[in-house]
Amino acid sequence: MTTTVPKIYSFAEFAGVADAVADHVVAAQNQALTNSIPSSTHNSSSSTGQTPNASSTNLKNGKSKKEKVVNKRFKIAISGGSLIGVLSQGLLERDDVQWGKWDVYFADERLVPFDDENSNYGNAKRQIFDKLEAMGKEMPQIYHIDESLLDDAQELADDYEKTLIKGFANKDSVRLPLFDLFLLGCAPDGHIASIFPNDHAVLREKLAWVVPVENAPSGPKRRITLTVPVICHSHRVTFVVEGAVKASIVKVIMERPEKGLPASVVNELAAGRVTWFVDKAALTETYL
Fold it and tell me: Which among 84, 73, 269, 113 has a CA at the least distance from the CA of 184?
C-alpha cells in the first residue's frame, strides 16, 4: 500500500472541530442539492420523518428542470460515537441546514434496542433528531435498522441492504450506493464504522453492501456495518477524530499505511475525496 496523505484540518479545541465539520457538511449539502446531475429516483419510505417524493426527477411527467433541482436529496451516512456530539454542536443552531432535504443512513449499528445507550440511531435521535423536532425544524428522512430483527445479524444486514437498494435504485442497475457525504469517526483500536482491524473477512468484503459482525472485540458484540467499497464510493469521505486517546492510532493510520488499518485502506481507495478533521490532541504523535 502506498502512502496516501488525505487533507487534514486540525484545531486547538473541540469547538473548532465542530464548527469546521458543520461548514464541511453544509458545503456538501449545497453541492448535492444544486448539482446539475439528476438525482436517482427516490421511491422508498422510512419509519421516521416525511414521505419522499418518488416522482421528483421524472421530466416526462412535466417536471421542469427547476422543480427537479428543488426535489434533490442530500444523501449522508453517519457513524456513531463522539461524531454524534460533534454534529449536534455544530449543526443544530445553523439556519443554512436544509434538514428536510436530507436522507440520513447509518454507517453501522449495534444490535441493541433503540433506547440502549449503545444504539447509534438512538443516540442520534436523542442528540439531534429529537432536538430538531422540539425546535420546530423540518425533519430529515431517517433510515435506521428494523428493531424487530435484532436477534439475527445476517437477516438484519440483508434487510438494511434492501433499504439502501430502495434509496439508491435497484442493485442490478447500481453497482454501489453513492453517498454525497460519508461521515466516520475512528476508535482508539482503529475500527471505523464496525469494521475492525483484524476482521479480515469484513475488511476485504467486495460484493455485499452491508454485512453482519458477530463477535466485535469491543463494545456490543453483534452489529452490522456498511462495507469498505460502499464507503469509498462516496463523493466525500470525512473522518472526525478528537482526543489524545486517539493520537497513537492516528499516527499508525497516517505514517504506517502498510499496516492495513481500515482508515488507511479508505485513505488509499478513496484518495482525493478523503478529509480529516482533528483536534491538536489527536495529532500529538503524528509527523505531518
Answer: 84
Q: Which residues pair with 75 in a beta bridge?
A: 103
Specify the number of domains making up the chain.
1
DSSP state of 285: T
DSSP one-letter string for 214-239:
S--SSS-S-EEEE-HHHHHTSS-EEE
Q: Hey, what's the cell of 254?
A: 497516517
Residue with cell 483484524: 198
Segment 135-190, tens digit of pLDDT: 999 999 999 999 999 999 999 999 999 999 999 986 565 789 999 999 999 999 99
Angle, vertex CA 126, rays to CA 120 and CA 132, nearest 5 = 120
DSSP β-bridge partners for residue 106: 78
In the block, residue with C-alpha cell 488509499? 268
260 assigned to some structural domain: no
Residue-range definition of the domain harbouring residue 182: 15-37+71-234
Nearest 5°: CA angle at 264, between 246 and 164? 100
Q: What is the pLDDT of residues 15-47, one digit of tens each?
A: 899 999 999 999 999 999 997 444 433 333 354
